[in-house]
Structure formats: C-alpha cells, structure tokens
Design brief:
globular, alpha+beta, about 25% helix, DNA polymerase, domain 1, 6 helices, about 10% strand, five-stranded mixed sheet, binds FE2/S2 (inorganic) cluster, binds flavin-adenine dinucleotide, single chain
Length: about 230
C-alpha cells in the first residue's frame, strides 16, 4: 500500500488511490481525499503553478532532507510514495495564525482573487526551506513559474522579496521547514508502480514488465493524462 505524510500526518493510500489503475494525480488526491483544497487547480497542465506543493525526502546517505516544489497536477500520487508533502494548510501556526510569508502577501496587497496565492506562497516557502539565505534574484527565479492573472507581479514580488537575504532591514524571518519523512530505499512495487534506485533494478523491472512506461518528470505523461490509464509505471 502506498503512503504519504501530509502536513505531518501519515496517510495510507489504498490500492488505486480510490481512482483505479495506478492511482490518481497528486492534486486530485490532495483535494478530494485529503480535503486540502488550498491546493488549487487552474490550468491542470503544468503551466501556471497554482497547484505547487513542497515535497520533502530524506537526504542520500544520511544527509539533510531535500525539498522541492512540485506541480501536483502533473505528479502521479505513486511518485511521491513515502515522501512528506507540505501544502499551504500546513503553514499556519499552532493558533491558526498566518505564516510570515502569508502575512507578507496580505500586508503588501499581493493577492486579489487569491487563486494563485497558495502556489506562490508554496514556491517561496520551498525556496527558503532549501536556501534560507536566498537572494532577491533567487526569489524572482523561484516565482517565475507561478502565474497571476489579476494582482500584478509588483506587489507579489514586493512581498516575496522581504525574505531575501539582500533585502532592506525590514525583511522578516520565514521559520523552519517540514521534517522529512522516511522514504523506502531500493526496489518497491505497489499498485503497478515500481521505484528502481539503480540501473540494475530498472533493468530488472523492465524485464519483468516490458510494457511498463518509464516516468521521469512526468511533464509529458501527466499532461497527456495517460498515467491513470497505464497499468504499469516505472
Ligand atoms: C508547461 C509545460 C511547458 C513545456 N514547454 C516545453 C517546451 O517549451 N519545449 C519542449 O521541448 N517541451 C516542453 N514541454 C514538454 C516537456 O518539457 C517534456 O515533456 C519533458 O522534457 C519530458 O520530460 P519528463 O521527464 O517530464 O518526461 P515524462 O513525462 O516522465 O516521460 C515522457 C516520455 O518519455 C518516456 N521516458 C521517460 N524517462 C525515460 C527514460 N529514462 N528512458 C526511456 N523513456 C523514458 C516516458 O515513458 C514517456 O513516454 C513542456 C511541458 C509542460 C508541462
Ligand atoms: S494547475 Fe496549473 S500547473 Fe498545476
Ligand atoms: S490573485 Fe488572482 S490570479 Fe493571482
């Protein structure tokens, strides 16, 4: 059975993730099953960043955890098996207060309809988790994939750049990032999904299932919505 940790809570995922085949896309599972509707779907095609979440994995060889921004609309749920996922709901403080990034967006009028805001916030949060001393240039780059139709980028960048290490003294602290969830190493097979870690394991998997599709980033397979109909994925 697959399993993901979302905002610190472990969720076993039944075979098929409730959608049959090799499971739904991460965004569908987060919104429909985990009921985390802060994760938005706008383009549903990897182009706008509204569905951005942070995926955290244990570092290799006992190293520090790694964080990466992921477009949940292009990511099959099985691809994040064993990972820790942070959504915008996971950023609130114990008393439900806004995270400093959210507060900065609010203070700078950086959100109008708000549809892009969770994705913008999660892209920045992930950057700062990876690189706490990110510069204003790093922040511009990290937000380049997050589109906004109504607010305008000036206020969004004004808010975001308050967290830059080279920002004026009014910059604010961001706070820590989510802890990594343990991820199984080695070859696993669940729900028609194999995760080879070595070339030998990949060759073995392909020999066992010659028809299985290999997935790397998923940006083509996810876009074509082929994943749910495929029986075997590597
Ligand atoms: C918003 C957006 C914009 C894009 N813009 C561009 C663009 O400007 N120019 C452009 O060229 N493309 C563009 N693309 C397409 C995208 O870059 C390609 O689809 C991407 O390079 C595919 O890489 P992937 O790792 O995501 O492939 P996947 O979706 O994981 O796989 C693509 C195909 O390759 C196979 N495959 C994957 N890994 C392997 C492997 N190791 N060995 C054998 N087969 C394998 C898969 O089975 C599948 O058939 C865009 C896509 C999106 C979503
Ligand atoms: S909804 Fe637009 S990138 Fe996922
Ligand atoms: S606030 Fe409306 S799309 Fe960004």
């Amino acid at each position: 059975m697959l399993g993901v940790t979302v905002n610190g809570e472990f969720h076993p995922v039944p075979p098929g993730g409730g959608a049959g085949g090799s499971g739904p896309m991460l965004v569908d599972w987060l919104r429909r099953e985990a009921r985390l509707t802060g994760v938005k779907v706008a383009c549903n095609a990897g182009a706008c960043g509204a569905c951005t979440v942070m995926v955290t994995e244990d570092g290799r060889d006992g190293g520090p955890p790694t964080h990466r921004p992921v477009l949940a609309c292009l990511t099959p749920l099985a691809m994040v098996d064993g990972c820790s996922i942070t959504t915008v709901e996971g950023l609130a403080g114990d008393g439900g207060e806004m995270h400093p990034i959210q507060r900065a967006f609010s203070d700078n009028q950086a959100s109008q309809c708000g549809f892009c805001t969770p994705g913008q916030v999660m892209s920045l949060y992930t950057l700062l988790a990876k690189k706490p001393d990110a510069t204003a240039a790093d922040i511009e780059l990290a937000l380049a994939g997050n589109l906004c139709r109504c607010t305008g980028y000036r206020t969004i960048l004004n808010a975001a750049k308050r967290f830059a290490s080279d920002a004026p003294s009014s910059a604010v602290e961001c706070g820590g990032a989510a802890a990594a969830a343990p991820r199984d190493s080695g070859f696993t097979g669940a729900d028609g999904w194999s995760v080879p870690r070595t070339l030998r394991e990949l060759c073995d998997a392909k020999r066992l299932a010659p028809a299985a599709a290999i997935v790397a980033g998923g940006t083509a397979l996810g876009l074509q919505r082929k994943i749910a109909s495929l029986i075997l994925l590597i």
